[in-house]
Amino acid sequence: MSKRLLLIDGHSMAYRAFYALPAENFTTASGQHTNAIYGFATMLLSLLTSEKPTHVAVAFDVSRKTFRSEIFPEYKANRTKTPDEFRSQMSYLHELVTAFGITTFEVEGYEADDILATIAKRAESEGAHTLICTGDRDSFQLVNEMTTVLYPKRGVSDLARMTPESVNEKYGMTPAQYPDFAALRGDPSDNLPSVPGVGEKTAAKWIVDFGSLKELIANADKLGGKVGQSLRDSIDSVILNSELTQLVSDVPISLTIDDLAWSGVDENKVAPLFNLLEFKTLKDRMKPILFQGSTPTSVEPEFTLFPEEMSEGVLTSKEADAKISAHTGALAITFSLIEEKLQSYAV
Questions:
Q1: Which pLDDT tens digit goes with each residue over 298-316?
Q2: Contact by Cβ (8 Å): 95, 301
Q3: I need a labelling partner for 77 at 20 to 30 A (CA). Which of 176, 290, 323, 332 fits?
Q4: What is the pLDDT of residues 138-180, one digit of tens each?
Q5: Global pTM?
Q6: In whole angstroms, what is the distance from residue 45 CA to residue 38 CA?
Q7: 64-76 tens-digit pLDDT
């Protein structure tokens, strides 16, 4: 059986879920916000059910301080403080992934996508097909015949499958050329400057025409007009952008792909967390991915209005008349029929 590996950028997808679902609509009775964890759990259940992976891992960021921020202190410095409503959910996110029996990774000094890149390249060398779910477009550079990126188009439920063909269709280039294009385009969300006056179309055309950023820079003197001069004036920042947008695939983690084997969800481990977070509607969605032998520790008895034996609580006609006469609110009545004959009723 071929290995099918699912990799998820934990922070990236949880953050998107946080902004996709109104925080005020997802709180427990105790006031705990749950929109990020609910959206992430819904996405996770959907991916595990539809993609049927044999191996799974989730990577998390440790902090905003990475080797990139050491190279360029302004890297992501423009981002606002993480909302407290999101921060309060992160411990539950880790609990959820662990309860699902999924291996997690986080490495000081690296971003989650670097970890995913490292695992993906290792999986590729072992002949495994890999799906990477992340909201970071820099991951497009990892796309090849063995690796597909699942990129959220809206929220965390609508995911685009980025294959070599779809990257080419959208950007007119190969996945390997994408980081060169991204270096020219810049990235406001990461606080990486663009080349003034150079938009996505021009950036893409240059990379396609010259084949790579290295060749483009080597021939920068041949570019005319204001955009040509703008590039020449921005070469240092473009080279820096290139260094920062290139994912590393040698993060120091010790693993084999077999270490990430996943056989399903143990309901006994997930159900208590779902109960705590009041995720009642998600329990049934676990059923297709429960591993064999997973059974709940206790089964709630099915509710029946009329038990087979009633030792107390049955009123005589006179007693019922007296109670009904004294009642001033609304009344409701229910009854049970067997073969179209009235067997019992309650008021």
A1: 444 444 555 544 445 566 6
A2: no
A3: 176
A4: 999 999 999 999 999 988 889 999 999 999 999 999 999 999 9
A5: 0.82
A6: 11
A7: 889 999 998 988 8
* Contact predicate 102/262, CB 8 Å: yes
Tell me which residue of 108, 45, 117, 113 sits closest to 264, measured CA to CA.
45
Alpha-helical (H) ranges within 74-190 are 84-87, 90-99, 112-125, 164-171, 178-185
Tokens representing 86 are 């999101």
For the chain, list the domains and their CATH numbers: 4-260 (3.40.50.1010)
Supply φ then ψ for residue 35, to 5 degrees.
Answer: -65, -40
Contact criterion met (CB below 8 Å) for 20 and 146: no
**Count of beta carbons in the 10 Å neighbourhood of residue 1:** 4
The rounded distance, in Å, linking the Cα atoms of 148 and 294 is 31
Q: How much of the chain is in helix, strand and coil states, percent to nearest 5?
A: 50, 15, 35
Q: SS3 letters for 245-312?
A: HCCCCCCCCCCCHHHHECCCECHHHHHHHHHHHCCHHHCHHHHHHECCCCCCCCCCCCCCCCCCCCCC
Q: What is the DSSP letter of 135?
A: S
